[in-house]
Write a sequence for this structure.
């Protein structure tokens, strides 16, 4: 669906929405929600490149988020690192870890990545919880604010513009990537692995590359979350958070850039909207997911795009 | 020197000897066909030479260089391309993109440059789009240039695979049953297409059950039966060979 009309049209719409949104939102609560939506959207964009475009599943992506968040927290608090370096160190650690895990796994056929990342995510949560002296254990730890060139990012107003810019750039870069030789190779190995191999695609290399890229996306946004919220808990790396991220990909639409954004926005907002159900909100949440999958198995954006395409 | 030399090639899957001790060589510029009854090991032979399977024994030389055991993406680099008996079209992409993927190795595949939309990369992609469209025209798929792959009929997909293989600008092209499942009219079109490809200077290796097409196109024919080489020769020689007739008709010649 990417080649009909310009896929970049949606980007301009997104930029417009992001530009006027802070003036339309009534209070800090909604600003906070918008920021968390945008942060999730960036993570989900990266994850969708891996799951939707390359066809590989990660069930431990929150683990990378956790590495980013705790790198920022621990390195700035205990070692007095500059937040920017701490953030970069977290991303680098994620890149190395992702490559080390993925390389042997991708030499095997089948969905072993899902198993390995599931384990990885759980191990990371345990490490974070048990290393209380460094991480504050299950209670979490505070994170100092992010400062760059003497300018300190503080509160929703500052962070909104940072996160909005990151989101717009990420959408632009993702659109560029999928419509490039690299992106086509990625989609081709999903469509037919053997066909991509015989035209020269080194499938292991591409799978590792996209896995590392999505891990780095997650780590960077983990650092951003840590500095923005000012506090981290082990839950950030937890299994349920990983599943939530995968759900955003699936609901929004696999292999859809705008689907990633929509999935993140909806699933970040949904728990708030369902708060009125009190104890039943999880049930309501699950019901909505089940029905979406039954009636829109390809996810929201691809299904709607197909519907609209048929009309004209 | 022959372009491709296969020497005492064998492949066993457990106890099944799919290819046994097969030797032959293919000169550059010809159409070379591999025929044989179902289960004779034709596709296995293709998979061995194109690196999809690793041989149990034997040598495969391309331009005198040993390639047995090399992976498909390494062989692609050496100018080997192929199509598949069971379609291997990327249904998650458009028809044109499928052809563009064929040119993978001729492009700048850098991730960072792609994400940042480097002008040189975009320009090259634009050229490639035209090139891919021209290839679709060459294989007779003009009307599907803007189509999604999953919206195309079977016969068109068979030809789309040929266009994708050609996009790699191969020296050696393996076509695995390009006419299988096609109606007589489509079969004739593919016959003409293979001829056009061969005339453009690509060495073609063909597995095909349509004997009219094989006899019509082939410079040399290799006959396999139960994984073994039965005979090899020109179309006329093979046609007269009593062993070949026996293998196909089950007659006791």
């Amino acid at each position: 669906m990417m080649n009909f009309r310009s896929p970049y049209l949606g980007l301009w719409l997104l930029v417009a929405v992001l530009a006027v949104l802070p003036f339309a939102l009534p209070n800090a609560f909604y600003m906070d929600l918008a920021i968390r939506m945008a942060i999730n959207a960036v993570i989900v964009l990266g994850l969708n490149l891996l799951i939707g475009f390359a066809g590989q599943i990660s069930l431990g992506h929150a683990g990378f988020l956790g590495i980013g968040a705790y790198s920022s927290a621990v390195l700035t608090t205990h070692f007095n690192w500059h937040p920017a370096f701490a953030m970069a160190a977290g991303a680098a650690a994620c890149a190395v870890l992702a490559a080390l895990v993925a390389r042997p796994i991708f030499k095997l056929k089948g969905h072993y990545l899902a198993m390995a990342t599931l384990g990885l995510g759980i191990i990371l949560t345990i490490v974070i919880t048990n290393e209380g002296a460094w991480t504050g254990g299950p209670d979490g730890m505070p994170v100092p604010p992010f400062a760059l060139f003497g300018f300190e990012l503080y509160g929703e107003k500052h962070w909104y513009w940072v996160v909005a810019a990151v989101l717009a750039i990420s959408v632009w870069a993702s659109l560029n990537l999928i419509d490039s030789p690299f992106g086509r190779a990625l989609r081709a190995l999903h469509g037919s692995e053997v066909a991509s191999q015989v035209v020269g695609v080194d499938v292991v290399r591409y799978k590792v590359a996209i896995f590392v890229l999505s891990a780095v996306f997650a780590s960077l946004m983990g650092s951003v979350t840590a500095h923005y919220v000012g506090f981290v808990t082990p839950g950030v790396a937890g299994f349920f958070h990983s599943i939530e991220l995968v759900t955003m990909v699936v609901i929004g639409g696999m292999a859809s850039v705008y689907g990633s954004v929509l999935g993140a926005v909806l699933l970040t907002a949904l728990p708030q909207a369902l708060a009125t159900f009190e104890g039943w909100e999880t049930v309501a949440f699950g019901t909505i997911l089940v029905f979406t999958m039954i009636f829109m198995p390809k996810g929201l954006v691809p299904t709607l795009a197909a519907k609209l395409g048929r009309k004209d | 020197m022959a372009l491709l030399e296969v020497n005492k090639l064998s492949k066993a899957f457990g106890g099944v000897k799919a290819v046994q001790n097969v030797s032959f060589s293919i000169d550059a510029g010809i159409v070379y066909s591999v025929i044989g009854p179902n289960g004779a090991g034709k596709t296995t032979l293709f998979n061995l030479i194109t690196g999809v399977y690793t041989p149990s024994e034997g040598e495969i030389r391309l331009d005198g260089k040993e390639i047995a055991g090399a992976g498909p993406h390494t062989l692609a680099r050496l100018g080997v391309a192929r199509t598949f008996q069971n379609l291997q079209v990327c249904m998650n992409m458009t028809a044109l993109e499928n052809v563009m993927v064929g040119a993978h190795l001729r492009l700048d595949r850098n991730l960072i440059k792609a994400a940042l939309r480097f002008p040189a990369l975009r320009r090259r992609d634009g050229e490639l789009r035209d090139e891919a469209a021209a290839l679709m025209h060459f294989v007779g798929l003009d009307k599907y240039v803007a189509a999604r792959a999953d919206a195309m009929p079977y016969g068109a997909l068979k030809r789309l695979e040929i266009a994708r293989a050609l996009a790699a600008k191969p020296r050696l092209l393996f076509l695995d049953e390009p006419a299988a499942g096609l109606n007589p009219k489509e079969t004739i079109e593919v016959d003409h297409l293979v001829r056009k490809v061969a005339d453009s200077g690509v060495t073609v290796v063909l597995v095909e059950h349509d004997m009219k097409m094989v006899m019509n196109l082939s410079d040399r024919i290799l006959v396999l039966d139960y994984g073994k080489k039965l005979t090899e020769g020109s179309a006329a020689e093979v046609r007269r060979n009593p062993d070949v007739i026996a293998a196909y008709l089950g007659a006791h010649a």
The mean pLDDT of chain A is 92. Chain A has one domain: 9-14+30-271.
